[in-house]
Amino acid sequence: MASGEIIDHDGARGKGFALRRWLDLGILACAVVAALGVTPARAEYPEKIVKIVVPFAAGGGTDIIARTTAQEIQADLGKSVIIENKPGAGTIIGTQTVATSEPDGYSLLMATFAHAVNPSLYNKLPFDPHKDFAAVSLIARSFNIVVVNPASKINSISDLITEAKANPGKLNFGTFGTGTSAHLAGELFNAMAKVKMTAVPYKGAAPAISDLLGGQIDVMFTTVASAASLVAAGQLRALAVTSAERSAAFPQLPTVAEAGVPGYAAESWYGLYAPARTPAPVIARLNQAIAKAVQSGAFKKLEANEGLIMVGSSPEELDRYVGQEEERWRKLVKDANIEVQ
């Protein structure tokens, strides 16, 4: 028998060569696949509908910004982007929804002022605003606008201060919930003007404004996006803007500081977050889409008509900005003894 030959149980020769050849070829094929790093093809993000959760009721300023964002980025992403409104608990309900979502880029959060303030308001949150989220982009910054019902006898910030001092605790200002920009802008006014107005929380800007129009509340420090069209139509009377300087969108309106409360300034913001551990390429793709979106005609219109300051930042810039906001408002929350009811 020749060396190396295989003889089967029937004593047949040659079959062993064929078997060895097939085994050798199989081993070689596996080695090639491993060397080339061949893996199943992975489709590029996104493969399905993307959802942006808005932690407020539909129709308010945050909702407007979110819907404009969705409209603009879906063309770039090539997939539909929808809005899901989940108001309640000072934005906690909607925020928690995203915190516990799959980190795949298909559930996003349109965060606002409250995202930076809630850690100061609550001893314990059902999520960690730092560890449970991945920053995508600071979309825009904005000031708030002080508005009253046109039938009100309050025609200026000076009138508001006079009325509030004459009736401590009797004037009501509507908010979008405890710790939102409309709330803390009003509390900052209380502290700096040395007056006492009572905050009335709602689940969003739209229901609060509805009660302002109906005369159930006296004043709001609302977002510009939620009130601009009503001011233009004469359905609300604007008294001042909360920014440090006058706005090009409302050049006729004084700042609260100019109108009687020196040093006063408050702003709101809109930032997009994904759940923590969302893959870096997905974050980068979303950030790229946002950067393009804020240059669009739709956002330019919001910028011109409603006083938004478009940003489209990097994720790192959003993290830094929110950290500064968190520090800024912590003192007011403590000094004003603001508590969640």
From TrEMBL:
Protein name: LacI family transcriptional regulator
Organism listed in the record: Bradyrhizobium nanningense
Domain of life: Bacteria
Signal sequence segment: none
Pfam families named among the record's database cross-references: TctC (PF03401)
Family the entry assigns: Belongs to the UPF0065 (bug) family.
